[in-house]
Amino acid sequence: MLLRRKAKKGLSGAVTALILVIASVIIALVVVGFAFGLFGAFGGTPTVTQVGTGTLTSSGNYVVATITLHSTGSVQIVSATIAGTTYSATSLSQSLSAGVNTVTLSFDTSTGSVTLQPGSTYTISIGLSDGQTVQVAVVYQ
After folding, report:
1. Any bridge partners for residue 69, and if so which?
2. Does the keyword Membrane apply (predicted)?
């Protein structure tokens, strides 16, 4: 009785090595992408930070704040108050998208008793739809 050996079929060593190298490069790129925040859409809640210092200007019974914010994702502004005063922003319907956003907030000063001083720096607390609160600095002009 003669035994015949079947020839082994499979991937050659070179093809296997090439597949492993390609998989390693892809895994390394994904790790670097997450480490440097390149995949912001998958990162959960967006991060919002202020760019520069904002301004406050008077306009009749209103004080208007102009602020530049950077966001890593989409989020809405749901509240804004000037710290140390009773002034709250009116008609909030502003959304922040990923990137740099210029935000204008109006505060009704007719009901408050605080007088803002020109040249002084004030802090505005901005409430976001994801529950975060961002503190921004503005200078009254």
Report:
1. 50, 101
2. yes
